[in-house]
Amino acid sequence: MNELKEKLYILCHDYIGNRVATIKQNVAEAQEAANDDSKSSAGDKFEVGREMMQQEVELNLARLGEMVKLKQALENISPTQKGTTVLPGALVFTSNGIYYVAIGAGKLLLDGITYYTISPEAPIAGQMMGKNVGDDFMLNGKKIVIEKIM
Question: What is the pLDDT tens value at each position of the chain, 150 positions in all?
C-alpha cells in the first residue's frame, strides 16, 4: 500500500512543477508586455503600464517563492513512512473522505478515487494530528471517524 502513498507524493510533486511552470510563464509574459509597452508608448501611459507589469512580475515571483516553500515541505515528508498515528505524510481514511497530509494541493484523482491533499496546517489536519484509528473528531459540526491510517 506504500505504492499508493508514493503515487500521491509524485502527484503532489507534479502539482508543484505545473504551478511553477505556469508562474514562470506569467513572469515572462509580463516582462515581455512591459518591454513591448516601452517601445510603443509615451509619457504617463508608459509609466502606468510599466508599473502594472512590474506589479504582476512581483506578484508572480511571490507565488514562485510559495511554491519553493511547498516543495521543501513536501521533500520533508517520506512517502514510505508507516505509522498508526496521524502525522505529516500520513494517508488517512475517514468517514468523510481520504486525506493525504502533505501539502495543500486540493483534490487529486488517482485510479478513479478522490484524495484530498492537505497541508499539516489545514484545520482538518489540525483536528486529525496525533489521532489513531478509531478516534473521531468534530469539524464544522460533523463527527468524523478515522478508519485507517497508512
Answer: 579 999 999 999 999 999 999 999 988 888 787 777 555 545 555 567 677 888 888 899 999 999 999 999 999 999 888 889 999 999 999 999 999 999 999 999 999 999 999 999 999 999 999 999 999 999 999 999 999 999
Domain count, the chain: 2
User: Are 118 and 23 within 8 A, CB to CB?
Assistant: no
Does a structural domain hold residue 62? Answer: yes
For residue 13, what are the contacts with CB-CB under 8 A and spacing of at least 6? 71, 74
Domain holding 140, by residue range, is 91-149
Q: Clarify whether residues 144 and 102 are in a common domain.
A: yes
For residue 139, list its beta bridge partners.
142
Q: Are residues 70 and 8 in the same domain?
A: yes
pTM: 0.83
